[in-house]
Write a structure and sequence with these properties.
This protein is an alpha/beta fold. 33% of the residues lie in helices and 20% in strands. One of its GO terms (biological process) is trehalose biosynthetic process.
Length: 284
């Protein structure tokens, strides 16, 4: 967003969910409120577009500068730090450099690993692995050159970032196949994700984790993160003492929609690294 300093946040209207409470705080006030209950607070982060810049090659991404050091420093200060992503847990583990004390929720919560422990897969999703493998092969055979097919064992992502002109064609093909096979679709930033028909999303993950928490922040950049924002709003509606803060990371594709649903916006993954580093003294 031109004209805004790196690392600074601005106030935007929060998601309107009827009578649910909003968070009338600027960034400094939000961190001060969090500091009073840091040991009860969970910090949630999406990965792509939030902790790491989006890349033309989704296998080539890496966290922005200062992000890994900030997460490592935050983990012992708050109740939990959790990454909630469309990526598989193994991918997250590799790209986070083996950080200790971080919980990983992959594939929208179909997989999870707590503090470096074993990866646990949602049992209802496992029978769909062969279907996903066959769908990936079919996509590679039928979709035009320029489409990147990412097979994630429990899902298939169809990317058209390097060939934007293919977007409508790729999305139409993906939705037709999902309907034929009884699968679900999740739209994203120049990508369509095809998933098993298992009732699992980021909002459900957040809802489960924050039930007995005193506060939570969620940092995200894409439309799937709005469900996570809504889960924090719902938790705050049931407990006025709960401090929930929704932060959007700006981007030129879905940034406006996500920012409108958030309490605060931040410029980029690099700015997020700066912001988290600057926030540490507040929590300590």
């Amino acid at each position: 967003m031109p004209g805004r300093r790196r690392g600074t946040l601005s106030r935007v209207p929060p998601l309107n969910l009827g009578n649910q409470p909003k968070t009338p705080l600027d960034a400094e006030q939000a961190w001060r409120a969090t500091a009073a209950r840091a040991r009860e607070t969970v910090l949630f982060f999406d990965f792509d577009g939030t902790l790491a810049p989006v890349d033309d090659d989704p296998t080539a991404v890496s966290p922005a500068p200062k992000v890994l050091a900030a997460l490592e420093a935050l983990a012992p200060v708050v109740r939990r730090v959790a990454i909630v992503s469309a990526r598989p847990v193994e991918f997250l583990r590799e790209h986070l450099g083996g950080l200790a004390g971080i919980d990983l929720y992959g594939l929208y919560g179909l997989e999870h690993s707590h503090s470096g422990g074993e990866t646990v897969t949602e049992p209802a999703a496992l029978p769909w692995v062969p279907t996903m493998s066959e769908l990936a092969e079919q996509a590679r055979a039928e979709l035009p050159a320029g489409t990147l097919v990412e097979f994630k064992r429990l899902s298939v992502a169809l990317h058209w970032r390097t060939a934007p002109r293919l977007g409508a064609q790729v999305e139409r093909w993906g939705r037709e196949q999902a309907e034929r096979l009884g699968l679900k679709c999740q739209a994203g930033r120049m990508v369509l994700e095809i998933k098993p028909p298992v009732d699992r999303d980021k909002g459900m993950v957040i809802d489960e984790v924050v039930r007995d928490a005193g506060g939570a922040w969620y940092f995200g950049d894409d439309v799937s993160d709005i469900k996570a924002f809504a889960a924090l709003r719902a938790r705050a509606a049931g407990d006025p003492r709960f401090v929930g803060v929704c932060v959007a990371v700006a981007n030129p594709e879905t940034g406006h929609e996500v920012a409108e649903a958030a309490d605060l916006t931040i410029d980029s993954p690099a700015a997020l690294g700066d912001f988290l580093t600057e926030a540490l003294p507040h929590l300590r």
